[in-house]
Input
Amino acid sequence: FIKRCFTGKVKLFPLLCSFALTFGISVLALFLFSAVMGKPVLAYINFGIIALPLSIFLSFTSGPTGEELGWRGFMREEFNKRYGFLKSSVCQGLVWCFWHTLLWAVDSEFTDWRAVPYVISNIVVITCMTVLMNIFLEWHNNLIYSVLLHFGFNIIYVFLEADIGFFVILTVLMARYKGFLDIAVDGVRAIDSLKDGDRVLIAEGCTHHRQCDDIGTVKIPRFLKKYTGKNLIVETSSGTGFPDDLTPYALVIHCGGCMLNEREVLRRMRLAKRQGVPVTNYGIAIAQMKGILGRSIEYVHV
Output
């Protein structure tokens, strides 16, 4: 099993790229966050009391080396037997993401409303990372690439001390990558114009089992009611149940689309736009209602 995981030939340039990709995105998000907050980047970095080489060694061995044998070594093979590349990658990403559920509860300071954008950020970022890892593995079939990609992401968080705004910016960068940030930001302004009796559609891309405090059916409707002070009619859809006629709605709030490909997400966004219905997504809507959207996108061209 171990030998099979590392059979592919290692090439220096792709190897460096695998690390630089996730490390670079995290550093970019940190620079944007520091610029928004008006503080130097080093204000959000704490090297602590552990020697730097030891911190790097622990970051490399505690997650990437051990986890990748399980996630990309074993789980990837099993999902690939059942599904095509994209569906397999998304399923792997969601399993990997929700494996962190306990850490969200016991190892995070975001236990108030900030827990919502924090969890959304985790879902979007980890799923996208899984797709990137699997692209490298399709090309080179050697776990060392996913280990370094994983390490490039983790190393920043060993020293990072940033508020929820950093994670919102990470999500915004992913939204920009998927191509719908402009539409989502334009659409979110409609929240301020909602009136009593307006219908709002909250759309999920997947058909997951709903929890008692589900984000789409409970939390976002609660945020809307508190933010607008209006008596709104909130309706929901999930999976392939997205309606073709959106004209009855004053606003559509869509999930991050981690279970949908980019083409389907953009199709839904453009369908709403053609029918003159404002559309946004969960992360942008929550950031707007919590008053942090302006700072989050200030340095991202929209």
The first helix runs from residue 2 to 5. DSSP finds 13 helices and four strands in the chain. The mean pLDDT is 82. The radius of gyration is 20 Å.
